[in-house]
Automatic annotation (TrEMBL):
One of its GO terms (biological process) is DNA topological change. This is DNA topoisomerase. PROSITE patterns: TOPO_IA_1 (PS00396), TOPO_IA_2 (PS52039), TOPRIM (PS50880), ZF_GRF (PS51999). Residues 621-632, 648-657 have a biased composition (Gly residues).
Length: 755
DNA sequence: GCAAGGTC
């Protein structure tokens, strides 16, 4: 009988594939590595009876590094890293897996690669092949292509095996070589330079990486947008009417104007009117949609926003829950539930929960689960979902994450919330005002999904054509405010949008720039850049290189896609990329003094400002550094900055007699403080829940012209759609606003012209 | 001492 060795990307996949192929009848044995077992069973390969052994690796087996002569960090050899020899070898902590592969290869005639069906999976497959062929060159090597681990998918894959796709293997080799050469070269250049020029404040590695640096760039760009923000005053009219003891507020159809005189003219016109006329009373059904099936990026964003966790901690909790069988595989790009998945039994399993049992039962009595699917699939894993019931006592610290995943799952497969909205339109001397009300009829998914809310607001009855004699019109003055600093969810969304990192690595890159002291979290868990991060971004910008922008990474990504499509070779893309980075490197090396100069300028400005304020402890005293001082609340600013700097120091350094680098490294004043907000809100107070210190932005960001990678995001953290103004003053002008419906009380007041 | 990508 032919002996077939199968190798999957991880133990979990190997187990499940073996389970399907063997009809749940396999023998399990230990391998050399603790985590990677052997699953044996009999079956058929290409029409012949065969003995199968299924085992696995744990991701990449190999690692790339520079050879002898380039291990040492020296300024003289740093530039040579673009051409120095690199060696691919088995990662030291994968040696046991390698041993298992070798042992199993000796007795096999056929090797089938069952790694994930993506670029990295293809490359991991090639690494497995090289290990196996080294002990048994006669192996016949195949590739199984499957999109999910179901009986149909894996049997189809086994009956239709193909060969590895060398183009995809090459693309990943190209990526890893570029990442290593470019990362190492710029890291050594930056580190060696700063250590020699500002040794007292710097003792760590100042790394550069194609993912970490654009991530830092996003943080810096937002910080600067806030610093450079100039508030703009505006005026608006507000209609008021009292009926049945209810104060009804009407929103001006022109929303607001940036011209005081014109607004006052409208105000006078309205005040001169004898009455207001109700021109229409419209009722319409409204619904609030249940959430889409959960993928990794959405999960991370939810955990950050709703549970106030870091993405890294959230993923760690999800992985613990996955390993102990409570939830499905947490790394997935899929937000569509496969048709054949048995959602009903997963819902039924939650029927006894004291928290959401009745809701789960209700789903079943109303016709069963009806998932709201998205449009993405990685063809490997289903959306994240709950697997078995649990209690708070048994999960302890991981309960909140389990609860989020379970409530999200139940909400996703339940039904939308529905209600009726009422819009009352009133005309005062041709000026139009609207009042909106909503009556919620069926809370639907909201009963289980405590992370969302929908506030109903009843309007008293109005009749069409009715004249209101006591309709009042007030004029309010307001001012646009700067955008918020990015929180982790914003940052992940930006990385996702620009293709920086993968769903599995977003959180790691963010941790990396924190660890490097490039950024820190302020008390509101929003990112402020440190002087080191600012200096790095400024230095490359000043030299004219877009190192902190996402474009370099996306150019590389396009090259990789070309390699996969066969339109370009690995050698071609590699040479082109190395040449362009080497040119940047050479010019950077010539002008590297800029980096320490800029860094010193930042630190010096802060120390001078601290001394001027009579405070001799630069670590936390500095106020009004740079241009950040906004009148009115400097003390509060200094406090916040100090706290942020202290957190920044939590990275494990510090201590000792030398001044701790981060003390100097974080600005202690500036953007943490909101500019004075003198707008008398015409809206009810914002929905409860975590609110940042800075108020919802009304105007924001630099012009989104060519090359600006920032999406315009409103105060709710959602990308803002472009709308067209229809007021006489600004007719046809385009602007960004909050994506939510106008009658949605959680809608924020975000506003920004598209310039 | 350097990257990013897999995964435990």
């Amino acid at each position: 009988m032919a002996r077939v060795l199968c190798v999957a990307e991880k133990n979990d996949a190997a187990k499940n594939i073996a389970l399907q192929l063997s009809g749940n009848r396999f023998q399990r044995a230990e391998g050399r590595s603790k985590y990677n077992k052997l699953y044996s069973f009999d079956g058929q390969f290409r029409g012949q009876p065969a003995k199968f052994v299924m085992t696995s690796v744990s991701g990449h087996l190999m690692t790339l590094d520079f050879g002898q002569g380039y291990k040492e960090w020296r300024p003289a050899t740093t530039g040579e890293l673009f051409s120095a020899p690199v060696i691919r070898s088995v990662n030291p902590n994968m040696l046991q897996i390698e041993q298992t592969l070798k042992e199993q290869s000796r007795g096999a005639e056929i090797l089938v690669i069952w790694t994930d069906c993506d670029r990295e999976g293809e490359n991991i497959g090639a690494e497995i092949v090289s290990v196996c062929l080294s002990v048994n060159p006669r192996l016949d090597v195949y590739r199984a292509r499957f999109s999910e681990i179901t009986y149909q998918a894996v049997t189809r894959a086994l009956n239709n095996v193909i060969r590895l796709d060398q183009n995809e293997v090459d693309a990943v080799d190209c990526r890893s070589e570029l990442d290593l050469r470019i990362g190492a070269a710029f890291t050594r250049l930056q580190t060696l330079h700063l250590q020699s020029t500002v040794p007292t404040v710097l003792d760590g590695v100042v790394s550069y990486g194609s993912c970490q640096f654009p991530t830092l760039g996003f943080v810096v760009e937002r910080y600067k947008a806030i610093k450079d923000f100039v508030p703009e005053p505006f005026w608006r009219l507000v209609g008021k009417h009292k009926r049945d003891g209810v104060d009804v507020e009407f929103v001006w159809d022109r929303n607001r104007l940036f011209d005081k005189q014109i607004t006052e003219t409208f105000h006078e016109v309205c005040n001169d009117a004898d009455y207001a006329t109700v021109t229409s009373v419209q009722k319409a059904p409204k619904s609030r949609w249940r959430p889409v099936a959960l993928d990794t990026v959405e999960f991370e964003k939810l955990a950050v926003r709703k549970l106030r966790m870091s993405a890294k901690d959230a993923m760690a909790a999800a992985e613990r829950l996955y390993t102990s069988g409570y939830v499905s595989y947490p790394r997935t790009e899929t937000n569509i539930f496969p048709k054949e998945m048995d959602l009903a039994s997963l819902v039924t399993a939650q029927g006894n929960s004291p928290d959401w049992g009745p809701f789960a039962q209700d789903i079943m009595t109303r016709g069963g689960p009806n998932p709201r699917n998205g449009v993405k699939t990685d063809e490997a894993h289903p959306p994240i979902h709950t697997l078995k019931p649990a209690t708070k006592q048994e999960l302890t610290r991981d309960w909140a994450v389990y609860e989020l995943i379970t409530r999200h799952f139940l909400a996703c497969v339940s039904r939308n919330a529905t209600g009726q909205s009422t819009t009352v339109k009133v005309d005062v001397s041709d000026e139009v005002f609207n009042a909106n009300g909503i009556v919620i009829e069926d809370r639907g998914y909201l009963d289980v999904y405590k992370y969302d809310n929908w506030y109903g607001k009843m309007l008293p009855p109005y009749q069409e054509a009715e004249r209101l004699k006591d309709f009042k019109v007030d004029i309010n003055e307001g001012s646009t405010t700067a955008p918020l600093l990015l929180n982790e969810a914003d940052l992940i969304a930006l990385m996702d949008k620009h293709g920086i990192g993968t769903d599995a690595t977003h959180a790691e890159h963010i941790e990396k720039i924190k660890e490097r002291q490039y950024v820190a979290l302020n008390p509101d868990k929003r990112f402020i850049p440190g002087f080191l991060g600012l200096a790095l971004v400024d230095a490359y910008n000043e030299m004219g290189f877009e190192m902190s922008k996402p474009v370099l990474r996306s150019t590389l990504e396009r090259g990789l896609v070309d390699i996969c499509n066969g339109t370009r070779t690995k050698a071609d893309v590699l040479a082109e990329q190395l040449q362009s980075y080497k040119r940047i490197f050479d010019r950077t090396e010539d002008r590297i003094i800029l980096l320490s100069d800029i860094f010193k300028r930042y630190v010096g400005a802060q120390n001078l400002a601290g001394a001027a304020a009579g405070n001799h402890a630069p670590a936390r005293g500095g106020r009004g550094a740079g241009r950040g001082g906004r009148g009115g609340s400097t003390a509060a600013v200094a406090n916040r900055g100090g706290a942020a700097a202290q957190r920044g120091r939590g990275g494990g350094r510090g201590g000792g007699n030398a001044p701790a680098a981060p003390s100097f490294n974080f600005p202690t004043a500036g953007v943490q403080n909101p500019p004075p907000n003198n707008y008398q809100s015409s809206r009810p107070p914002q929905a409860p829940g975590p609110r940042p210190v800075v108020q919802a932005p009304r105007n924001a960001l630099p012009p989104p012209g060519n090359g600006n990678p920032n999406p315009i995001v409103c105060g709710c953290g959602v990308p803002a759609p472009v709308r067209t103004a229809n007021t006489s003053a600004n007719r046809g002008r385009r602007f960004y606003g909050c994506a939510k419906q106008r009658d949605d009380p959680s809608r924020c007041n975000f506003f920004q012209w598209e310039t």
